């Protein structure tokens, strides 16, 4: 008889959108499927990281129940402890879950975990800060700043659209000195993003050819544009089809260096502020094992905004 899969389920009560009954039923389903589950209610990222480190020798799998920021805060710890990750999407955007083909509906997400399909994914790193999805500066940071808890609560999945229009009024251009795998160029930008995963910002595609297990980072930079031009560009931004428009600069590589003027621009990764320019990015191929639906269709459960 196979031994039980020793599992720690970390729940972020602040991002909980599922009922306790649904979570309890899901935990019992996992136990029936051969998982030995400890449920841990965390008050914050440091407490979650400490809980994992203290149990690392007794664990095989960590299930993170929360949004992208909550999950991203655990990336470095999971990598250092070499523990597998599963996701219960309880946030607003749930972009990593979408990338991994994990359904947004909790019962279906528990079904995926119980089936236990595994794959290895890459991690992105910016100035020693780890991330799953995307790190950005410029307009994307302003969108995040507009995305308050009140906006999320009132607008739900449409909160990113609301925040985007509010951020348009605050957009500012900046200069960039960019180096991608040794190739240098200078440009002007109002939005620059470096993606390790595929989705960000509530279902936007960072690049239509991007995958979280391709060993590469995908960059795009939007040239300075007026509001109307940005709105006409929005459908391409949504689908990651940047190669179709001269207003967007794209690049792919394993190592990316960014210097800006003004310097010290804030960089957000997976929706959270993590560092500032100048910045050095790199990709760690196959860094983590995750529970993810095999041969997943990336468009599954994607909201239409």
From TrEMBL:
Gene3D superfamilies, per database record: 2.60.200.40, Probable inorganic polyphosphate/atp-NAD kinase, domain 1
Source taxon at top rank: Bacteria
Family annotation (PROSITE patterns): DAGK
Keyword DNA-binding part of the UniProt annotation: no
Cofactor(s), by name: Mg(2+)
GO molecular function, one term: kinase activity
Keywords per UniProt: ATP-binding, Kinase, Lipid biosynthesis, Lipid metabolism, Magnesium, Metal-binding, Nucleotide-binding, Phospholipid biosynthesis, Phospholipid metabolism, Transferase
Location of the DAGKc domain: 2-130
GO CC annotation: plasma membrane
One GO BP annotation of this record: phospholipid biosynthetic process
InterPro entries found in the cross-reference section: ATP-NAD_kinase_N, Diacylglycerol/lipid_kinase, Diacylglycerol_kinase_cat_dom, Lipid_Phosphate_FormReg, NAD/diacylglycerol_kinase_sf, YegS/DAGK_C
Record field: transmembrane: none
Annotated protein name in UniProt: YegS/Rv2252/BmrU family lipid kinase
Species of the source: Marinimicrobium koreense
């Amino acid at each position: 008889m196979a031994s039980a899969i020793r599992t720690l389920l970390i729940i972020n009560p602040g991002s909980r959108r599922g009922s306790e009954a649904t979570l309890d039923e899901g935990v019992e389903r996992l136990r029936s499927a051969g998982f030995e589950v400890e449920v841990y209610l965390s008050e914050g990222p440091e407490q979650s990281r400490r809980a994992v480190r203290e149990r690392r020798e007794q664990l095989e799998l960590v299930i993170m129940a929360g949004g992208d920021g909550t999950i991203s805060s655990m990336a470095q710890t999971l990598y250092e402890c070499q523990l597998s990750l599963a996701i219960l999407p309880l946030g607003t955007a749930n972009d990593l879950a979408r990338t991994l083909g994990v359904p947004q509906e909790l019962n279906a997400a528990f079904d995926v975990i119980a089936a236990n399909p595994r794959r290895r994914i890459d991690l992105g790193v910016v100035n020693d800060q780890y991330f799953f999805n995307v790190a950005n500066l410029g307009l994307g940071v302003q969108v995040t700043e507009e995305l308050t808890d009140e906006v999320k609560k009132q607008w739900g999945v449409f909160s990113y659209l609301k925040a985007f229009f509010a951020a348009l009024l605050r957009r500012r251009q900046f200069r960039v000195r960019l180096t991608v795998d040794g190739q240098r160029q200078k440009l002007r930008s109002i939005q620059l993003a470096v993606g390790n995963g595929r989705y960000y910002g509530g279902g936007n595609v960072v690049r239509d050819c991007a995958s979280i297990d391709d060993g590469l980072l995908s960059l795009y930079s939007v040239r300075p544009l007026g509001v109307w031009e940005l709105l006409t560009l929005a459908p391409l931004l949504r689908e990651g089809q940047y190669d179709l428009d001269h207003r967007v600069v794209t690049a792919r590589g394993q190592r990316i260096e960014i210097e800006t003027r003004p310097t010290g621009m804030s960089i957000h990764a997976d929706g959270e502020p993590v560092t500032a320019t100048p910045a050095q990015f790199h990709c760690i191929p196959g860094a983590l094992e995750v529970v993810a639906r095999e041969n997943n269709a990336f468009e599954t459960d994607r909201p239409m905004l």
